[in-house]
Write a structure and sequence with these properties.
Blueprint: H1 4-19, E1 24-29, E2 36-40, E3 44-48, E4 54-56
Antiparallel strand pairs: 1-2, 2-3, 3-4
Length: 57
């Protein structure tokens, strides 16, 4: 299960992605690291770490 901080960040980032018309194709939890991975648009990948910080790849 994701943490509360991860869920808040997921909601905010998903909102902003769809606001700029990027479709969110996949939201998945990495079983090894417990990070959330978001695939949006053609080449956009966002990782949300356990401490609520996130990274755009």
């Amino acid at each position: 299960m994701p943490t509360v901080e991860q869920l808040k960040t997921l909601f905010i980032l998903s909102f902003w992605a769809t606001k700029i018309y990027l479709p969110v194709f996949l939201v998945r939890i990495d079983e090894r690291t417990k990070n959330i991975v978001i695939l949006a648009g053609e080449e956009n990948k966002i990782i949300i770490y356990l401490d609520e910080k996130w990274r755009y790849l």
